[in-house]
Amino acid sequence: MRIHKTTTIGDIWLAIGANALGNTINPRLALEYTRTALLGHNLVVFSSSCVHITPPIGSVRQNRFHNAVIGIRGSIAPAALLRLLKRIERSAGRRLGVRWGPRPLDIDILDFGGRIIGHPARMTRPGTLILPHPGIAARGFVLVPLAEVAPHWRHPILGVSAGTLLARKPGLRRGIVPATQPPGGLNPGRTQK
Known about the structure:
Layout: E1 12-18, H1 30-39, E2 44-48, E3 51-54, E4 65-73, H2 78-91, E5 106-112, H3 140-149, H4 162-168, E6 177-180
Antiparallel strand pairs: 1-4, 1-5, 2-4, 3-4, 3-6
Helix pairs in contact: 3-4
């Protein structure tokens, strides 16, 4: 018998990115689409970064990405959240494709209340849930909005903030520019209680 543990302890941080048209959204609307979908599952978005325009990674020629980070709260297990996020991506038109290729919506769990699951990442099978996300420290498109919206957040393994990780590798900021204020009335770096 498998027991599914849920949590309401700690904040959950998600990275959202998009650079291609989907079923019902364009990249500029990916953040609002995700926020609305999460509310339908009793998950509350309490904090939201600005949307940042960022260069794509990898060797595939494609448009620049719209990226943001949001903080959510609610009672859900990590694996259940991952399944929900994959359903939201599919409903936006995401299909399997080239690694680091264009996508109408990409949602990654960055941190789930400080939990450490599946580390070291090199020891896990593809598709396995790994927390915190193993790419956080090397991705400017995640660190810039995360530092903006959660300046006191600490990487659960490295023990340092997103701002510290950016200071260690200033080149990660290259090509990243703010696009818009976050939708829904949240100010960057501010939270709702």
